[in-house]
Structures are given as C-alpha cells and as structure tokens.
Amino acid sequence: MHFAIYLASHTVSGEISNNSMRFTAIRPVTRGSLFFGKYFAIVIMSAILLLFSTVTSLCVGGIIYGFDSLKILMVFNGNTIFVAHPLLVITIFTLSNMLLIMLYTAVAILFSTALKSELLAMLISVIMYAGNLVLPLFFGATSWLRFYPLVNVNLFAYFGSTRLASDSVISQLFNTVVYQGMSIWITIVFIIGITTILLALAKIIFKKLSS
To answer: Measured in Å, how far apart are the chain's first and last C-alpha atoms?
Structure first.
C-alpha cells in the first residue's frame, strides 16, 4: 500500500518538478491514455509486489506449519457462516488489498496532480490511510463513520469472525470492524464509485497541466 502511494504521489508531481512533463506531453497518445497508463502501471507494479509477499508468506508458513493446515471458520457479510481453506482466506485477503491499492493509488495520484507536490500528496494520502485504521477506535461501529467512504472500504472485514455491535475501543482493537447497517455490496459500490470519481477528477486536471 505504501509503495503504491509513494509511486502515485511521485508520478505527476515528479515530472512537473524536473520539467519532464513537456516531453511526456508531446508523445503521440491522448492525454487520457497517458494518464491511465501511469495509473495502471502503478497498480500492476504494486500487485506484483503484493503477490510476491503473499506467496512468500504462504510458502514460509507452509514449511513451518505444514500445507494441510486446519480450515478456518469465517462469517460472510455478518450472517453466513462457512468453513474456508487457508488458501481461500489468503486469496480473499489479497483481492481485498488489491482493491484498496487501486483506491489509494487514485487518491495519491489526484493529490499529486492537483497539488503538484510529491511531499504533500504523499503526506495527505498516508494520513487518510492511517485514518482508516485509527478513526474506528474513537468512533463506534454504529456511528456516522460508517458512511465515510475511505473508512468503510475494507472488504476483508466482511469475512471476519464477528460483526461488532459495540462502541468499545477494546473490542474494536481485537476484532474486525464491520459497521452496522453496512454490507459487502455497499462497500464494493463505495470503492468503485470513489475510485472512478477520483480518477475522473485527476484526469481532468492532468489534461490541463499537460496541454
């Protein structure tokens, strides 16, 4: 995640600061293709790194504990209990993180384009990402926070062991937060919608900068 944020923060503001944007803009491709090429290049590089770390962790865990580990009891969307193989759990976790990477790459590339500052873009993006982890500790699972899109974006939470109904900070520290009234489908709509809006805004600003 931090790797994606760093690259996205640098990709546009870095070209502006070193005056290489003018050379990028004269290439015989549309500004939209150029922008999305940058975006998907970051996402793909981050995905490769994520897959590498996941496979490495899986191999190390398999060697130490064996590849025939006990299956895991999970609760899907807070109401459906099922038993999953560890490989399925890792796959779900990886795909959930891929969607988060796509979202926060869009966040960082928007600020990089709008502010023309790598440092500010990275700082704001990291603060927003950290807020995703910290804010639920201060506001309950029943609070207004569940409607704040950049907090309610963790799909893996919907495959956790509990659906929280308590505002207890201690309980949230040791459990997976799933906000009351929310579902995995609402979260998916949040992620897709926010990512689309952020990329559309960043594309508009990028086209003006490179024109």
So the answer is: 31
